[in-house]
């Protein structure tokens, strides 16, 4: 099963840039989208009902903000939205699916740059994610946590680490949570195969950073260690345009 994750920065915007053609050509088994930025009444049939896919959406209550989606060739056993925690769930950042072999959490993690309060919200959201993932593991299946984490883990994961050491997205306290995630037995699938490779998944529009490849690696597939034997490959598709992020992939064999 090849799983893709992509922050599309607006599903209608990326659709105008060839999203459906890309999907038809690439044929992911499972596609997790973040920041779809759409409301149910705005979602047209061509994006909701794509041949060969079951589709599921979680919308933020605020129009034009957040939202996540799953397109899956295999119909999941179950799909649900959110953690069951109102202060997090109303932003539409989580959609989860159960498959015979694993649970998928597709998450658009908060950005902490706007204020101290927002940074604390992000950190609380991180802790809720880990607690929820650990509860799922107790059900006897592995867990895949895919999405835009909004944090670069190591200096290798962004172009200018020294200049950003006091910027949310590379703060020590944010990076420590990713350490905690690994200490709980979750594997950064890209680093599993490419421990020293400098590859980014997000570039700022404001500074035309993609042209200079001055980016950040903030999009991940973390898998619980129960799935390590099933891990086959992981990649970052830097040549795919349409958003300020690019898709990241992981291949699991069952």
From TrEMBL:
Residues 5-245 form the Endonuclease/exonuclease/phosphatase domain. Gene3D superfamilies: Endonuclease/exonuclease/phosphatase. The record marks 150 as: Transition state stabilizer. InterPro entries: AP_endonuc_1, Endo/exonu/phosph_ase_sf, Endo/exonuclease/phosphatase. Keywords: Hydrolase, Magnesium, Manganese, Metal-binding. It holds the Pfam family Exo_endo_phos. The record marks 219 as: Important for catalytic activity. It is an enzyme of class 3 (hydrolase). It comes from the Bacteria. Its EC number is 3.1.11.2. Belongs to the DNA repair enzymes AP/ExoA family. This is Exodeoxyribonuclease III. It comes from Halanaerobium polyolivorans.
């Amino acid at each position: 099963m090849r799983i893709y994750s992509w922050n599309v920065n607006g599903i209608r915007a990326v659709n105008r840039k060839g999203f459906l053609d890309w999907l038809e050509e690439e044929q992911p088994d499972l596609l997790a989208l973040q920041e779809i930025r759409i409301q149910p009444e705005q979602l047209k049939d061509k994006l909701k009902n794509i041949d060969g896919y079951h589709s599921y959406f979680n919308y933020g209550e605020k129009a034009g903000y957040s939202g996540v989606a799953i397109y899956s060739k295999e119909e999941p056993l179950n799909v649900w939205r959110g953690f069951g925690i109102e202060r997090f769930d109303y932003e539409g950042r989580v959609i989860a699916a159960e498959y015979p072999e694993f649970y998928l959490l597709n998450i658009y993690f908060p950005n902490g740059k706007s204020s101290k309060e927002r940074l604390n919200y992000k950190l609380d959201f991180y802790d809720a994610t880990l607690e929820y993932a650990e509860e799922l593991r107790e059900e006897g299946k592995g867990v895949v946590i895919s999405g835009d984490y909004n944090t670069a883990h190591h200096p290798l994961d962004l172009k200018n680490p020294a200049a950003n050491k006091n910027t949310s997205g590379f703060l020590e306290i944010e990076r420590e949570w990713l350490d905690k995630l690994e200490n709980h037995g979750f594997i950064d699938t890209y680093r599993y195969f490419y421990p020293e490779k400098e590859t980014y998944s997000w570039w700022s529009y404001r500074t035309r950073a993609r042209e200079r490849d001055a980016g950040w690696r903030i999009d991940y597939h973390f898998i619980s260690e129960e799935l390590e034997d099933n891990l086959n490959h992981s990649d970052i598709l830097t040549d795919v345009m349409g958003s300020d992020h690019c898709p990241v992939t992981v291949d699991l064999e069952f």
